Amino acid sequence: xxxxxxxxxxxxxxxQTARITCGGNNIGSKSVHWYQQKPGQAPVLVVYDxxxxxxxxxxxxxxxxxxxxxxxxxxxxxxxxEADYYCQVWDSSSDHYVFGTGTKVTVL
Amino acid sequence: xxxxVESGGGLVQPGGSLRLSCAASGFxxxxxxxxxxxxxxxxxxxxxxxxxxxxxxxxxxxxxxGRFTISRDNAKNTLYLQxxxxxxxxxxxxxCARGWYSSSHGGNWFDPWGQGTLxxxxx
Lengths: 108, 123
Known about the structure:
- The structure holds 2 protein chains of 2 kinds.
- The radius of gyration of chain A is 13 Å and the shape is globular.
- Chain A contains no helices and 9 strands.
- Chain A is mainly beta.
- In chain A, strands 1, 3, 4, 7, 8 and 9 form a 6-stranded mixed beta sheet that branches. Chain A has a 3-stranded antiparallel beta sheet with strand order 2-6-5, with no helix packed on it.
- Chain A has strands at residues 9-12, 18-23, 33-37, 44-47, 61-66, 69-74, 83-91, 96-99, 103-107.
- In chain B, the strands form 2 sheets. In chain B, strands 2, 4, 5, 6, 9, 10 and 11 form a 7-stranded mixed beta sheet that branches.
- Chain B starts with a strand and ends with a strand.
- Chain B is globular, with a radius of gyration of 14 Å.
- Chain B contains no helices and 11 strands.
- The chains are: A mainly beta, B mainly beta.
- Chains A and B meet through β3, β7 and β8 of A and β5, β9 and β10 of B.
């Protein structure tokens, strides 16, 4: 089965840039989506199709995908961005949906 | 406003059964694929199952295949998950989510999600 690997944690100072990676075999050939989950809340979609943003998501959130790594970038980080972030793809060979291991973003 | 509201969670003994429901509103329910995703306490997200718009096609994670059944009633705008032969490792918050598909990129994602319902399997 397809595996997505994320760093367990990322720490960033307010106003700086956070980069969260999502590693998978030839992930650049797949479409990657990202979710933000705050404690006690349901996940919220922040990026879909590698780099598109749903309405209402700030431009500070951006995504890229190439080779074996997809990246979610949060620019000008704010305290309210502190959350868990998950990447996700659809594995067409199995018709299964796969989530990454999750990354906890801490704002210092 | 698009809304998904799960219900039916609770405490059940190992080997028992439970049926979860997800009431949808604010969109044309019958036009969308729907999914169940779960999250064990303190753990990450795990996809469980999906159903296509008319209910004719389903898919399951290996961990629940043969024990769980996803279904929908488009007349009632409601998604279901019948869970049988429950195990301790099925303990989780279960979320329903609307599915999206991008024909240009071949991507499938979830938006929005319900608030979740907690299922606890314990004796």
